[in-house]
Amino acid sequence: MQTACQAVQHQRGRRQYNKLRNLLKDARHDCILFANEFQQCCYLPRERGESMEKWQTRSIYNAAVWYYHHCQDRMPIVMVTEDEEAIQQYGSETEGVFVISFK
């Protein structure tokens, strides 16, 4: 997801970002980058006073919910985050979309 990729670039640094980009480029991994910020149903404008991190989390969750419904609710979607507040806020909001941490 485009927003998640940008979050890695800004929060984790160039090294982690390059690892992610290489993973996406490698055809053996069968990965794609979904440009959620250019998909009308997924884009959410940043609210006044909202931090970049909160907007990115909200955008990623919204795109995950859209993708779940796009797949006709047949495939669960897992959003991984280190943000405990996001887990509390979104963890049980949509059936079939799971928000978890690996910590």
From TrEMBL:
Transmembrane segments: none annotated. One of its GO terms (molecular function) is enzyme binding. The keyword DNA damage does not apply. One of its GO terms (cellular component) is cytoplasm. The keyword RNA-binding applies. It comes from the Eukaryota. It is found in: Cytoplasm. Keywords: Cytoplasm, Exonuclease, Exosome, Hydrolase, Nuclease, RNA-binding. Belongs to the RNR ribonuclease family. This is DIS3L isoform 11. It comes from Pongo abelii.
